[in-house]
Design goal:
alpha+beta, 2 domains, 6-stranded mixed sheet
Length: 352
């Protein structure tokens, strides 16, 4: 088993051994990455400032050359945001100006590795590597592997502190992650030049996901349990099945009959109607109970789908133009940046 596989296995175990998280994080750093045990370090009860309104416990799990790693058992199911992480950092700063904090959410499904580093101008900089149980999170796993010390590096005892900070700088480097991301985007783009339909599909999926995050279409349309109750033949893990029930019943009806059709013109396709009538809801046979069609109000720019048992109903949500513009603007800006980036990649293809 490789180092990356062992790191991922340890992180995944955090979602299965809910009462033994400190031991697992200690194992990650001390056994897989070669750090030292937290001898001489004591737990700290921290009282962060606003917006954190409760005490949190920082438990030492590892150290190297006096630079500590603390585990924070976060009391919410979602990891702390930037402001909350800064409040925790300030509470620990009088004891350890430079440190690594490992946040574990209450539901044990999310972790975050945060490094606090003092810059040359005296300001504290926080950089975070997130991990969610069950997700690929390849970047976080690869970045954590940068913290590993080999036996040769430890042959003469603990390395100098500069070597520790060099590894931390490399692991939490935004520039390295950004360069890797754009290189992967470039590789994918050149491969996808011959797969225009794939690019179109991914673009539509990103837009629909944005609408879901804004509450304009429901999360149930992307939830396997809800879709299993709603659709006939929904089998997301049957990779050998070339015909996608989800694409036909949900995505096609979202892309065309919902988001690309005026409010008053949305309806089911009639029997025998031309199969290229994309402005009508199709594949009625894939719904367990299609007796109530997708419908919506004429006053809303988008519909909100609510799936109950197997029926699909599109409710109205009134949004003024200014609000709609503010919501869509980030998508438009991202699309514009991607277009410029892809154009640049096409022009400089030989140099990559």
């Amino acid at each position: 088993m490789t180092t990356l596989e062992r790191i991922r296995q340890t992180l995944e175990s955090c979602g299965q051994n809910q009462g033994n998280i400190p031991a697992l994080i200690t194992s990650l750093f001390c056994e897989e990455l070669g750090w030292g045990h937290p001898r001489g370090l004591m737990p700290h009860t921290l009282q962060p400032s606003a917006p954190v309104s409760r005490q949190v416990m920082a438990v030492p799990v590892a150290q190297m050359c006096g630079l500590p790693v603390y585990l924070v058992d976060w009391p919410d199911d979602r990891l702390p945001g930037t402001t909350a992480r800064r409040a925790v950092q300030r509470a620990l700063d009088p004891t350890h100006a430079e440190h690594v904090l490992v946040y574990v959410a209450r539901n044990r499904r999310q972790l975050a590795f945060t490094r606090a580093r003092k810059r040359s101008d005296g300001k504290i900089e926080l950089r975070t590597l997130p991990y969610e149980i069950g997700s690929p999170a390849r970047t976080t796993v690869e970045r954590l592997a940068e913290l590993a010390f080999s036996l040769d590096e430890l042959s003469s005892g603990e390395p100098p502190i500069t070597r520790v900070t060099d590894k931390l700088n490399a692991a939490f480097s935004v520039e390295a992650v950004t360069k890797q991301f754009y290189q992967e985007i470039a590789n994918w783009y050149f491969w996808a030049l011959d797969h225009v339909r794939l690019i179109r599909l991914i673009t539509r999926l990103i837009f629909c996901w944005f609408l879901k995050e804004k509450g304009l279409i429901p999360a149930t349309l992307f939830d396997p349990k809800s879709l299993t109750a709603m659709l006939n033949g929904f089998a997301p893990h049957a990779m050998h099945d070339a015909s996608s029930v989800f694409y036909k019943a949900i995505l096609q009806n979202l892309f065309f009959a919902t988001l690309n059709t005026e409010m008053g013109r949305r309806d089911w396709a009639k029997d025998g109607q031309h199969f290229m009538a994309h402005n009508l809801y199709r594949h009625k046979e894939l719904f367990r109970d299609p007796t109530r069609p997708w419908h919506c109000s004429r006053t809303s720019p988008f519909s909100t789908a609510v799936c109950s048992s197997a029926s699909t109903v599109l409710k109205a949500r009134r949004i003024n133009r200014a609000t709609f513009g503010l919501m869509v603007s980030p998508v438009a800006q991202t699309a514009s940046r991607l277009c410029r980036m892809f154009s640049s990649l096409a022009r400089n293809r030989k140099s990559i």
